[in-house]
Amino acid sequence: MSFLEAIRVALGSILANKLRSFLTLLGTIISICAIIAVISVINGLNLYVEESVSNLGKGVFVISKFGIEHDRETFLKAIRRNPDLRLEDGEAIDKACDLTDEVGVEVHSNARIKRGSHFLDGVDVGGVTQNILDIEPFELDQGRNFTRSELLGNAHSVFLGADVVTELFPSVDCLGKKVTVDGQLFTVIGTAKKRGSVFGMSRDNFVKIPITTHEKMFGRRRSVNISVKARDEVDIDEVVDQARVVLRSRHHLRYDEDDDFGVVTSDGINNLWKSLTAALFAIATFVVSISLVVSGIVIMNIMLVAVIERTREIGVRKAVGATDADIRRQFLVESVILSCLGGFLGLIFAFGVSTLIAAATPLPARFPMWAPALAFVICTAVGIFFGVHPARKAAGMDPIEALRAE
Amino acid sequence: MSQANGEVIRLRGLRKIYQMGSQEVRALDGVDLTLHRGEYIAVMGPSGSGKSTLMNLIGCLDTPTEGDYHLNGTLVSELSEDDLARIRNREIGFVFQTFNLLPRLTAARNVELPLVYAGMSLDEREERAAEALAQVELSDRSHHKPNELSGGQRQRVAIARALVTRPSILLADEPTGNLDSRTSEEIIALLDSLNQAGNTIVLVTHEPDIARHARRVITLRDGKVISDEAQTPPSTAQLAKSTS
Q: Which of A186, A222, A283, B108 meets the CB 3.0–4.6 Å disulfide criterion with B142?
């Protein structure tokens, strides 16, 4: 009997018992739906992190007091040991490294931003060198960046994030208007385009002021972040090394001592994130495998019932010339098709679920295009594994006994 | 494959012994038979005489404990399971008392079944099945399922299925056992005409009326052949009268 013929026979018997087949497949449907939905969420999160969270800009890395610490010990050590970074550290890197394109420095604090009776609390106030707006992925919406003289002259100029604009200037043009930052008056010189939110947290709730002005207002006792942009066509790792050498010598570190500062690259953030989601994925896979085994057993059970029910059919088929291999193939194909049908339905549900999650929750679920292939492989494996025993049983039947069955 | 003398089946010293607990049951106890092409044979005997065992052995559904079975010159008593399946497929046509049609398939699909295992293409299968159904005069019922057919029609579909591979021998095990007497006559008339057309038929029955149609009657008792007689069946003219 050809493979095609076996598929036709299998479909015939599955469709002859629609409700039973569906109930049998419920386990498979739910398992496949669950694993694909989890994969969709993780996939969505990964892409999201790649695109939004860790996107420092092309060829950009950030040096800060603390890096991405993977364990508590090193983090506690870093708190004790790492000195604050200063504006001068950034200037030194800029001077000493020939592979850098731009070196910017930014320091953060929080303050109330006010215009007339409108105000916003807890806005991130970034004290920046003027090139930060070129390094970080901001897009200028209106106005302009800081000038060098504003930076040197402690100018009270301010650059606004999109949220601040919407809140304080709901209907009027903001350029040239005054706002107060922590009680001091500033002139708006430009605004950034909306960047959206990450995990429900807005990335537009900020203002930028010159770093010199920031120092005057908030003091110098804050560690700065140094953003470095590598020159085009230069390997970012080489630039990182150059910058590290400069900082290590400024911090008088011996050759066998660890860095006392952190370097954050897009890859670093992605790797940390992926190690987190890999753990999540492993747990989800484990749980789903258990339910897949259960649903495989359900399929085996119903196949054993089908073999008993169709004892007579097996006898007839053998009498007219079916070999043991023919019978075995027929039942094996049936259990694989049954299982794959479950996988297919599960996939459809998973597609719906991930679309729903993406629409209804802040989780950015995205259905991966390779999910169908994965589901197909899993279901074929389950179908074969749990179909072998019933198929063997069917093939091993004595035709005379089988023909005599009621 | 066929022998020059038209010998289809040769059984020599055939024994089938079942072990029922500590007891040994000799279902067949040394059967010697030679069946020729074109013969029409009735096998008779009380229940437990070994009729069914003989049919199963001839039909290659079972293998003898002892003795030789030659089918068209091939010693089949020593073949593997797969080879036996191939012989059942190509050389043997079974007709059962309970029809044994697959309920989910149409008449045509049921008739095609042996051809599926012969590895024939769908087109060829359909053509051959239509031919076989025409032979049993059921062309107009080919798309009906067994539960939409009468008992006699079902048995005719089963006969078409047995014929479709053009087997060397047609084995009918109590083919009229589940039919009323008028339908039985129809089926027997069909078998008669198939024999006239050249098919070799072995018919197992316990009804003398049915056995009367055969040209040779073999009687079994306790696993042994106790009589093997030629007889003159009723003429075709008579048969035509009785069925019309």
A: B108
Burial string for A48-58 (b: 16+ CB within 10 Å, else e) reads: bbeebbbbbee
Task: Collect all residues of chain B within an 8 Å Cβ-Cβ radius of residue A322.
Answer: 85, 117
Inside any domain, residue B158: yes
CB contact under 8 A, A320 and B59: no
Give the best residue of A318, A320, A323 to mutate against chain B (max B CB count within 10 A).
A320
The domain spans of chain A are 3-52+271-404, 83-260
Look up tokens 């007889």; give the residue: B231
- What does the H/E/C string look like for B75-117? EHHHCCHHHHHHHHHHCEEEECCCCCCCCCCCHHHHHHHHHHH
Q: State yes or no: pLDDT of B214 exceeds 70.
A: yes
Number of structural domains chain B divides into: 1
Residue B104 Cα, gap to closest chain A Cα (Å): 8
Domain assignment present for B78:
no
Cα A267 to chain centroid distance, Å, stands at 13
Residue A97 to residue A243: CA distance in whole angstroms: 7
Domain that includes residue B174, residue range: 38-64+86-243
Measure the CA–CA gap between A193 and A142, rounded to whole angstroms. Answer: 8
Residue B19 maps to a domain: no
Say what the alpha-carbon torsion angle B3, B8, B10, B15 is, to the nearest 10 degrees.
Answer: 150
Distance from CA of B172 to the nearest CA of A (A): 13
- Within 8 A of A2 by CB-CB distance, chain B residues are 119
The pair of structure tokens assigned to B127 is 């053509």
What is this model's ipTM? 0.90
C-beta separation of B170 from B190 below 8 A: no
CATH code: domain of residue B194? 3.40.50.300
Mean pLDDT of B51-75: 91
* Residue in B with minimal Cα distance to A403: B100
Strand order in the sheet with B66-71: B23-36, B7-20, B66-71, B74-75
Flag whether B30 is in a domain. Answer: no
| pTM over the 0.90 mark | no
pLDDT at B106: 92
Query: Which residues of chain B have a CB within 8 Å of the CB of A400?
Result: 56, 61-62
What tens digit of pLDDT does each residue of A101-133 get? 888 888 888 888 888 888 888 888 888 887 887
Residue A171 DSSP code: S
Residue of B nearest to A401 (CA): B61
Per residue, the 3-state secondary structure of B225-244, as one string, reads EEEEEECCCCCHHHHHHHHC
CB contact under 8 A, B82 and A1: no
Is B18 at the interface with chain A, CB within 8 A?
Answer: no
From chain A residues 295-334, the ones with a CB under 8 A of any chain B CB are 312-313, 315-326
